[in-house]
TrEMBL record:
UniProt organism field: Pedobacter insulae
Name of the protein: Protein translocase subunit SecY
InterPro entries: SecY (IPR026593), SecY/SEC61-alpha (IPR002208), SecY_CS (IPR030659), SecY_dom_sf (IPR023201)
Residue ranges of the TM segments: 21-39, 70-94, 114-133, 145-166, 173-194, 206-230, 263-283, 303-325, 361-382, 388-408
Gene: secY
Family, per entry: Belongs to the SecY/SEC61-alpha family.
HAMAP family the UniProt entry points to: SecY
Amino acid sequence: MKKLFTTLSNIWKIQELKERILFTLMILVIYRFVCQVVLPGVDPAQLVNTEKSGILGLLDMFAGGAFSKVSILALGVMPYISASIVVQLLGIAVPSFQKMQKEGESGRKKLTQITRYLTVAITAVQAIGYVKTQVPEAAILIDHTMFYVLSGFVLTAGTLFVMWLGEKITDKGIGNGTSIIIMVGIIARLPIALKQEIESRFTGNSGGLIMLVLEIVALFAVVMFTILIVQGVRKVPVQYAKRIVGNKQVGGVRQYIPLKVNAAGVMPIIFAQALMFIPNALIGVFPKLQDSWLHQYSDITSVTYSLTFAFLIIAFTFFYTAITVNPTQMSDDMKKNGGFIPGIKPGLATSTFIDDVISKITFPGSLFLAIIAILPSLAVKFGIQQEFAQFFGGTSLLILVGVVLDTLQQIESYLLMRHYDGLMKTGRVTGRTGIPAAGGSTAAL
């Protein structure tokens, strides 16, 4: 406990770090305040039963409840994340985007600009769908046509405002702005979920305090397990040959390549959830399908839903890892810099070895990711309220753990630069890959 207070006092002694933390907190307060502002022309009194479930509930959690409140920030940063993912995938498949990725800072600026324009287009389309499907007609106080047009502009401006806030946090605050905004939105739902769970446990014969304590212990264990998966790496040793550059000798040291057990991050879960939403969408368009086999995918706690969801996550983990991790390029870069893996020939043999290692660690990583993803449905099966069960796994938990680790890593780097002790007595906080950033791999879903 004494070391904790010492570390906190050291953080406060570093002027730049203190200013960045206070700036981040100020931006987050502004964001949470604006989230409460309802769209113009909407009667808030008519929005009493707008709680969302399923994929919409997940979007509402990411937006900190703004989605169900019909706020001007209802769409949050999700259109920006979608645009970032599209640009990232184009960087893998389209040569012109690959060229921009290799142009350094100028290429990054071009990709960022493209992402912003794409965000506007995606938000405009999603805004129309949102106001037509999620806003009750009884809540609209003005002419409907005027409301739809006005809401489209306001929701688009709201998403751009949130995107701007995220960029400001990244530039002048601490951590990745987009990731932190999503994390705050998720955490904002925790008090409500915890309150509902406590009320349910003390109502009737639901186990009372003992069951509540067991749930908290189980949640703590799940968080520890998730941290293990997020931080897990397979270290491949690399030896660099000695070289003479000018009058100095460089190289001759042994380093390692940290291959992540979960290199795909939260992307497989996001892709799988998008596909799992299709059956519900088909039932909504064609009501006759309600009695077909597609109805099994309406219940997230069903065995069919969980098994299909897990299978898709495993498949997408292999797919996303294959397109983002390039063993051939890693081998070529190593060869150019005079590096080699001990006992492995440079070139094709090195590429094959790295690919084999990635394949071996990706399967357990994808399996653990699938387990984390279906834990919320298992929690509901054990009687936990669905709102609180969302914190037992899935995208929300992975984002929370990843963003916290990433932010702590930045804080620790400031402490170590000023010759203070880190956040822990032993070891160092290792960051993770988070929400996709334009023009590169993921940087906080």
